[in-house]
Design the sequence.
């Protein structure tokens, strides 16, 4: 019969309160890039409800007018400061690609795949542990790497019965996963065995969206869109681990084109992120507002092409908190659009400087570059 | 306009650099881990348990002659190890020109080409190696019968070597007439080698099992066009045991050797070589749902001062893959696989605790059902069959404080997944 003679349970040396995941913006299920195109991003996201390349308003795809393929690349250079420590990271994202196809004079169909929540980070920490004899203290290095995202695959149709009114609807499949790898590395590898744990958490959910775009005159336009989320299930293998709901969203936008060569725009959106509370762990999920304003103007000619200049600002609440408090983000953007190949392609660029903050003396600065390419084959 | 173009060029250049720079992700946020890193693995738990349910010492080799080295030693009253080489199939004819069955009438330059493991040499004084004719019709697996043949009237050669003469290859000359007589008569040539020295002298030669066997070489013609014969050890007996027959081409016998330890003690190495077998019963909760960081077999050594007490026995832990159908520990101790860990150096004369690391066995044990593949570790000497040194340990028969135990350091697996 087995007899446990000594059971020594040892301590976490130097333990600190730690409930987050390496950065403010990747709390919970991760960072929402916004699902807006580079073009809309250049004006703060304020034109997202009118933008056919953004996965926001299904009615907007009718405005593209021509068969289009588009792709976006948006690396983020992030600097996080917490107490006396700082960390700089680089995250490469391809947050959106898709296609829009006009079908006859009034109908347009579109498909897009966009990053809904990006959860990519890596942390590494060390602590001392007693392993074996009571005087045998070894250093444990724990390295956690999380890669993955929840993506939004949208199939949308839009009807443009008149130049003033466009209506649209979309069906969304939310899918993706997070690959988590935890390495525990012990000093003195001759006597100690390192361990690696890895798991994949998959997410699946559905949602539907509707939208309208109304232009009562040449100088002003209104847009309204909404998304109703269904259940989102997190599973490992065949086992469902938790469920929540895709956040509902409602947003409204306005554009003013009364100034020759310029467009002013504004947008407000509310998203019920708290429906993901059961999936977000201790970070907590918060319903959030998203406000943005921006302007777009015709710039100089380069090689006989008119460059469009854009600028904007945005303030929003990130979905997941830190230490139970909300994390807010303020961003300023600028960019340009350059028509190519006799207007059969457009290269858009936007640069964004985002500041995120929360209680607890943690600050985060991010510079997001966004490159968008649209081609009409 | 020109300034604008220059600005755009600069912007394009900066953008290109940033794009290229962002192609490689850098996600490590270690710098802010003091505040932002998640709680991960739990504390390491250390427990010491009486997990050994069976321990025993068993023969290391499957029988005489299975060793990879042949020990030749004379160490006064402590050790007298001798080597037997069997050449049971000598040729009686050879080929010369078109004559393929020319009868051997001449033997010249007869030598035993011995391959010496120079790392095992002990003693710096000259040693005389004597060769005896040990062919007999007596029971040829009987050590006593063979030892009785090391007598003056059987002596066929003798040669003294200084320490510098003990090189990695030795050509030991044999009397040509003796080899010729054996070849012509169709008799077996069985040679016993014995070391004679005024002090300690110990060497070992590579055995047939090592792939570098001793070879008997001799010429049968003065014509150098005729190639010399090169014959490797070969035994025709015992006829009813092919494995033993294969092993007995060359083997070591002992005229004197240190007394064996107590039958209740655990032994590793020695002559004849022994292995120690441990069977474990470990709580499944630890094996199945924990991450093993370190597992240490705690042994208490018994001093063995008889032979080179301050020299080193290299103890090698190995995993037995014998199924539950193998009930004989000696057989289970032959079905082994490495654990990928280093040997433990033990001085035979020492006493006290000896730690054997076994963590590498746990991944295999996690995959195997103990009812099908018992959790067995075997300790063997790295130089088994080569070195006469033996390390001894207390077994389960000893007092409680001296028995083998298992100390395990582990953490519970971290529930990864949702934030």
Sequence:
């Amino acid at each position: 019969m087995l007899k446990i003679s000594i059971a020594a349970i040892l301590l976490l040396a130097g333990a600190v309160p730690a409930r987050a995941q390496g950065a403010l913006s990747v709390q919970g299920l991760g960072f929402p890039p916004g699902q807006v195109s580079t073009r809309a991003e250049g004006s703060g996201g304020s034109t997202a409800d009118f933008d056919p390349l953004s996965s926001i308003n299904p009615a907007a795809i009718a405005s593209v007018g021509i068969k289009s393929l588009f792709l976006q690349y948006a690396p983020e250079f992030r600097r996080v400061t917490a107490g006396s420590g700082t960390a700089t990271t680089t995250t490469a994202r391809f947050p959106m690609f898709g296609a829009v196809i006009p079908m006859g004079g009034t109908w347009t169909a579109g498909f897009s795949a966009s990053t809904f929540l990006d959860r990519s980070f890596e942390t590494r920490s060390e602590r001392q542990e007693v392993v074996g004899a009571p005087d045998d203290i070894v250093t444990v290095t724990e390295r956690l790497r999380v890669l993955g995202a929840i993506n939004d695959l949208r199939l949308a149709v839009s009807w443009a019965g008149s130049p003033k009114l466009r209506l649209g609807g979309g069906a969304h499949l939310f899918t993706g996963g997070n690959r988590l790898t935890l390495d525990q590395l012990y000093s003195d590898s001759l006597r100690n065995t390192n361990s690696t744990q890895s798991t994949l958490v998959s997410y699946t959910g559905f949602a539907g969206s509707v939208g309208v775009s109304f232009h009562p005159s040449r100088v002003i336009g209104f847009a309204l869109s909404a998304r109703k989320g269904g259940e989102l299930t997190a599973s490992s293998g065949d086992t469902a681990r938790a469920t929540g709901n895709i956040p509902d969203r409602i947003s409204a936008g306005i554009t003013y084109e009364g100034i020759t060569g310029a467009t002013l725009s504004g947008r407000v959106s509310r998203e019920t992120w708290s429906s993901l509370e059961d999936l977000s762990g201790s970070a907590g999920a918060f319903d959030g507002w998203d406000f943005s304003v921006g302007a777009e103007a015709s710039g100089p000619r380069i090689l006989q092409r008119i460059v469009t200049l854009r600028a904007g600002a945005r303030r929003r609440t990130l979905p997941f908190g830190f230490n139970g408090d909300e994390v807010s983000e303020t961003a300023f953007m600028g960019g340009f659009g350059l028509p190519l190949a006799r207007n059969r392609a457009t290269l858009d660029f936007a640069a964004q400087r985002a500041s995120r903050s929360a209680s607890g003396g943690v600050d985060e600065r991010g510079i997001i570059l966004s490159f968008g390419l649209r081609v009409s084959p | 306009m020109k300034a604008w173009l220059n600005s755009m060029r600069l912007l394009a250049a900066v953008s290109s650099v940033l794009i290229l720079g962002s192609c490689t992700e850098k996600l490590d946020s270690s710098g802010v881990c003091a505040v932002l890193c998640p709680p991960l693995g739990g504390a390491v738990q250390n427990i010491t348990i009486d997990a050994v349910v069976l321990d025993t010492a068993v023969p290391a080799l499957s029988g005489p002659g299975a060793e990879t080295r042949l020990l030749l030693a004379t160490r006064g009253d402590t050790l007298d190890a001798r080597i037997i080489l069997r050449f049971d199939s000598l040729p009686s004819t050879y080929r010369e020109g078109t004559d393929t069955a020319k009868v051997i009438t001449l033997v010249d330059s007869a030598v035993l080409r011995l391959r010496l493991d120079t790392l095992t040499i002990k003693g710096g004084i000259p040693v005389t190696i004597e060769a005896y004719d040990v062919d007999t019709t007596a029971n040829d697996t009987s050590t006593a019968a063979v030892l009785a043949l090391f007598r003056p009237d059987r002596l066929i050669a003798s040669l003294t070597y200084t320490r510098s003469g003990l090189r990695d290859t030795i050509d030991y000359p044999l009397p040509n007439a003796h080899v010729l007589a054996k070849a012509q008569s169709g008799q077996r040539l069985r040679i016993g080698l014995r070391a004679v020295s005024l002090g300690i002298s110990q060497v070992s030669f590579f055995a047939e099992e090592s792939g570098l066997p001793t070879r008997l070489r001799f010429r049968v013609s003065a014509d150098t066009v005729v190639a010399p014969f090169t014959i490797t050890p070969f035994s025709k007996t015992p006829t009813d045991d092919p494995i033993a027959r294969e092993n007995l081409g060359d083997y070591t016998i002992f005229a004197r050797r240190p007394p064996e330890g107590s039958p209740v003690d655990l032994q590793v190495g020695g002559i004849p070589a022994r292995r120690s077998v441990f069977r474990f019963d470990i709580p499944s909760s630890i094996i199945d749902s924990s991450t093993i960081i370190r597992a240490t077999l705690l042994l208490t050594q018994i001093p063995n001062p008889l032979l080179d007490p301050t020299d080193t026995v290299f103890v090698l832990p190995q995993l037995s893959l014998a199924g539950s159908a193998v009930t004989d520990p000696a057989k289970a101790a032959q079905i082994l696989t490495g654990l990928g860990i280093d040997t433990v150096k033990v001085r035979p004369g020492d006493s006290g605790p000896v730690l054997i690391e076994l963590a590498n066995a746990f991944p295999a044990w996690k995959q195997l059902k103990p009812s099908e593949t018992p959790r067995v570790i075997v300790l063997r000497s790295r130089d088994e069959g080569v070195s006469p040194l033996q390390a001894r340990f207390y077994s389960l028969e000893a007092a409680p404080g001296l028995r083998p135990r298992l100390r395990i350091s582990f953490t519970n697996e971290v529930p990864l997944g949702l934030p």
In short: Helices of chain A lie at 38-42. Chain A touches chain B through 84 residues (CB under 8 Å). The domain at 24-375 of chain A is CATH 2.40.160.60 (Porin).
